[in-house]
UniProtKB/TrEMBL annotation:
Domain of life: Eukaryota
Sequence ranges assigned to domain RING-type in this UniProt record: 226-276
Residue ranges crossing the lipid bilayer per the database entry: 54-72, 79-95, 101-120, 141-163, 175-192, 302-324
Membrane topology: Multi-pass membrane protein
UniProt keyword list: Membrane, Metal-binding, Transmembrane, Transmembrane helix, Zinc, Zinc-finger
GO terms for biological process, alphabetical: ERAD pathway
Keyword Transmembrane assigned: yes
Protein name per its UniProtKB record: E3 ubiquitin ligase RNF121 isoform X2
């Protein structure tokens, strides 16, 4: 039996037509969506058993993939982080080109160019004295921009849900598209910059010599040197150096305040750069206005899985369905 749909004609009268006979060119976007929706239901009618099998495949694949990713991250964290970072950097580019999101592509190219330069500086040996602060300034700037962009996007979405967009005579679909776009920009670049910053922080700290991922540091830390940037903490007026506030951790090691905050927030480190003692982030960020930065960073870490691995898992599920003849 052919599927039919009601379509409005001149004068507001509704007539029933076969879905395959409807001319889509003369219909409004809402009517086109209704017809496409009806066609999809007609196409999948009577395939309930196959749909249930596809759902089971999806659930099983998600569970197995999650277990494998957790084991990989625990056993080989370095390779896991590198592959995740590469996927997060490249996978959205594929969809951008495919869907013609040229604005996102321009921003992606600008971000990639500057980040590539900063990463190149961070991985050089010997390390230039000004490089650590350059790296943390760049990634802290991106972190703050992504944080603000995400908040604005979230507020736009909430305003649209509550109908406040009508006060400014903005269509709901336009307001929602604007909010979701800003939310995506903020979260995506927030996740990406944290992973690049962590990689750069590891390279710089290992090059300076006061930090090692495993084993003892290769240099002894003097009380007058910051283990993050390798510069003197206290300098005279006539000496060349960095003059700023200092921060003492619970292990009594002292750092430039900007350096240790960059190490913990931007570089995702929660241990002392020298002795690896646990850093009390609540005590470091005693100001209630700064604590949301910590929660935002934890949210970005959680979203990494959705951005990097979810498209891969969905593609794997589609491949399994194709091999089994399920469409």
């Amino acid at each position: 039996m052919a599927a039919v749909v009601e379509v409005e004609v001149g004068g507001g009268a509704a007539v029933e037509r076969d879905l395959d006979e409807v001319d889509m060119s003369d219909l409004s976007p809402e009517e086109q969506w209704r017809i496409e929706h009806a066609r999809m239901h007609a196409k999948h009618r009577g395939h309930e058993a196959m749909h249930a099998e596809m759902v089971l495949i999806l659930i099983a694949t998600l569970v197995v993939a999650q277990l494998l990713l957790v084991q990989w991250k625990q056993r080989h964290p370095r390779s896991y982080n590198m592959v995740t970072l590469f996927q997060m950097w490249v996978v959205p580019l594929y969809f951008t080109v495919k869907l013609h999101w040229w604005r996102f592509l321009v921003i992606w190219i600008l971000f990639s160019a500057v980040t590539a330069f900063v990463t190149f500086r961070a991985t050089r040996k010997p390390l230039v004295q000004t490089t650590p602060r350059l790296v943390y300034k760049w990634f802290l700037l991106i972190y703050k921009i992504s944080y603000a962009t995400g908040i604005v996007g979230y507020m736009a979405v909430m305003f649209t849900l509550f109908g406040l967009n009508l006060l400014f005579k903005i269509k709901p679909e336009d307001a929602m598209d604007f909010g979701i776009s800003l939310l995506f920009y903020g979260l995506y670049y927030g996740v990406l910059e944290r992973d690049f910053a962590e990689m750069c922080a590891d390279y710089m700290a290992s090059t300076i010599g006061f930090y090692s991922e495993s084993g003892m540091p290769t240099k002894h830390l003097s009380d007058s040197v910051c283990a993050v940037c390798g510069q003197q903490i206290f300098v005279d007026v006539s000496e060349e150096g960095i003059i700023e506030n200092t921060y003492r951790l619970s292990c009594n090691h002292v750092f430039h305040e900007f350096c240790i905050r960059g190490w913990c927030i931007v570089g995702k480190k929660q241990t002392c750069p020298y002795c690896k003692e646990k850093v009390d982030l609540k005590r470091m960020f005693s100001n209630p206005w700064e604590r949301p930065h910590v929660m935002y960073g934890q949210l970005l870490d959680w979203l990494r899985y959705l951005v990097a691995w979810q498209p891969v898992i969905i593609g794997l599920v589609q491949g399994i369905n194709y091999i089994l003849g399920l469409e």
